[in-house]
Amino acid sequence: METSIRKNKDISSIDGGSLYISKDIRENVARIEGIFSGCGDVVKKKLHLPMAGGEGDIYILYIDGLCNNEFVSETIIKPLTWEWRDNVSPDLMNLIWEYGAQTADITKEDNFDNAVWAAMKGDTAVFVSGATEALIVSTKKFPLRGIDESSVESGMRGARDSFNEGFRTSTALIRRRIRDTGLKVEQGVIGRRSRTDYALMYIEDLAEKELLDGIRERISAYEIDAIYDSAMAEHLMEKKWYNPFPVFQSTTRPDKAAAAIADGRVAIVCDNSPEVLLVPATMNTLFQTADDYYNRWPVAVFARIIRYAAAFIAIFLPGIYIALTCFEREMLPDKLLYAIANARSNLSFPIVVEVLIMELLFELLREAGIRLPEKLGNTIGVVGGLIVGQAAVEAGIVSTIVVIVVALTAIASFAIPNEAFASIFRLFKFVAIIFGALFGIFGCYILMMFLIVYLSGIESFGVPYLSPLISDRCDTQAYKDFVLRAPIISMFFRPEFADRRQRVRLRRRSKGGSK
Q: 191: phi > 0 → left, psi -120 to 50 → alpha, else beta; which?
């Protein structure tokens, strides 16, 4: 069921006048003309109908470019001016409502501000003389890109569609996958000036009430001028702004969002954003991909192990290399130690400076590749890395071993499926370099223990970030979807996010067909 927020009695009037619609249509027209003076894209059309039962004036308001102009003409203007202009009924509002409206998506609105805001969102507002209500006709037609394959979360199997910037398109893609009357779409508006639509999507009997109350409280805790992307709403809802680890999971794949909702989580959909936020989020969910559930069990388990190993490499490999070559050389095989010494024989920089130069160079190339056009960015990333790396080796700035270490670290960071999560690993990589340079291998241990302790204290809407490792709500069933994923046929229970009374999601049927 969809909850549409129509009444906003707590906001001030747009033009400082009354919040209510006047019976005198001339007063309403004057207010609208004053509000939209100098707005060339606002269409304001006044119709005068000589009716048998008296005179009737109608004023139509919509934004050119945000609505379907042809639909407005066919379903509003044409019926009003041609089909029943000589009707004897003096009640023009009821006549339009009962007989003239040629669309099912039409509502009445008695609040002047809400009628104007509806027009600014792409609907058409119809003001009628003698009526204290306006008719709001759904005529939205935004300039949107099509539904393409996700370029951020690509996979080998599964659906190829992805969310786009259309609010209703995103909710429809989720609704298409969950055909359950328990799926709720709780709508609201955030941003005093942008009036950005958002929706909380959840299954009523699966999502916990405390989770929903927490999301509602946080999303309404601040008043802001404008929200342009779901990431801005995410920042407002974070309890600790200084926490570098994301406590929201973002996705562009509808199948992933639908699977999260079926597990008892809540999806937050924002207008103008192709990314949907999923809460709560844990470190384990940020390592998961849709392919984990589409591929064969051994392949999925192996892929997950690779991702966890890649996370360790992305943070600690440069720091461990510095620690081993500067402090614990006896831990290296003799041949490898000789190879490193030979590669560094003509270098003038210390190992720490050498690693930092290459790491910063790769980060620079990565950032440049993102800002450039797609085809040119890929070329710069590959060719620039090869040419600059080779030139740095030949110039005696870095050694070939360091190029290999830095390349492996960069590749490992790409294996982490969530970009916001992977960015934190890139940041802590430099912390590991500093700790390794100061304290050797013991410094890497210190950093590792610090991360474990810090992550143990993070929560995402009451769910521990390291769940199921430290959660008191988890049982042995929770480990079936951890690093080593069990076959789907044996995963009988939903994760700990779901309501405790609705944990069972899979049952075996008897031969007779009963459960």
A: left
At a CB cut-off of 8 Å and minimum separation 6, what does 135 contact?
A: 93, 96, 97, 101, 106, 107, 108, 109, 125, 126, 128
Q: Which residues are registered as beta bridge partners of 124?
A: 137
Pairing of strands 276-279, 266-270: antiparallel
* CA-closest candidate to residue 162, choices 256, 271, 272, 263: 256
Phi, psi values for residue 447, rounded to 5°: -65, -40
Q: Is the pTM of this model over 0.70?
A: yes
Give the span between the Cα atoms of 385 and 366, in whole angstroms.
9
For the chain, 515 residues long, give each residue's pLDDT as a single digit of tens. Answer: 333 333 333 334 555 556 889 888 889 999 999 999 888 889 888 887 765 445 578 899 999 888 888 888 877 777 776 655 555 455 777 777 776 666 778 889 999 999 998 998 889 999 988 889 999 988 888 877 878 888 788 888 888 889 998 898 999 999 999 999 999 999 999 998 888 999 999 999 999 999 999 999 999 998 899 999 999 999 999 988 889 999 999 999 999 999 999 999 999 999 999 999 999 999 999 999 988 999 989 999 999 999 999 999 999 999 999 999 999 888 888 888 888 888 888 887 889 999 999 899 888 888 877 777 766 666 666 667 677 777 788 778 888 889 899 989 989 998 999 889 999 999 999 999 999 999 999 999 999 999 999 999 999 998 999 988 887 776 677 888 898 888 988 888 888 888 888 888 888 877 655 55
Q: Around Cβ 83, how many Cβ atoms within 10 Å?
A: 12
CA 294 vs CA 155, 161, 314, 418: distances in Å? 10, 16, 26, 18
Give, for 268, the enclosing helix (H) or strand (E): strand 266-270
Closest CA to 268 of 353, 333, 176, 188: 188
AA letter at 142 = F
Per-residue burial over 64-81, b = 16 or more CB atoms within 10 Å of its CB, e = otherwise: eebbbeebbeebbbebbe
Distance CA 505, CA 263 (A): 9
Residues 6+ apart with CB under 8 A from 417: 153, 286, 287, 288, 289, 307
Closest to 86 measured CA to CA, from 55, 111, 51: 51
∠ CA 10-12-14 to the nearest 5 degrees? Answer: 140
Q: Which residues pair with 187 in a beta bridge?
A: 199
